[in-house]
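[Q] Does anyone have a clean structure-token version of this?
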Amino acid sequence: MTIAYWKTSSYAALLVLLAGCGHTTGRQALRGSVTLDGEPLPRGTIQFVPLPGTDGPSAGGEIQDGQFSIKLGKGVFSGSFRVEITASRKTAEKVTDRVSGEMTDAYAQFLPDRYNRRSELTAEVQEDGPNRFEFALSVK
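[A] Here you go.
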């Protein structure tokens, strides 16, 4: 009788575990495009930072050829977000690499502060929406 009870208990526990596998975290996948003066931003990063009244966490990802995608499990909860976009490019300067001690190319942020440190960009992430965003930036 002990063996039969163990088998029944094991099956019940397995069913409970399997039922939990479909549970979602409430995070939303995010994707979209970023253009700079009408052209796809070649490389950069994007960060979604919750505004007051929206539960965290923040989430971010890479921008590659004007496109970004943040997977469901790495996304944000629905709500209002400030969006920060950064991108750097090589300057004419050289700097000393801290690890190797060799001279290497210097890179600098070239997007205006209004897109990153003092971002004016926002996004409304919907619980049931496609959450696809387009950000048209300009430095002109």
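[Q] Thanks! Anything notable?
[A] The longest helix spans residues 2-20.
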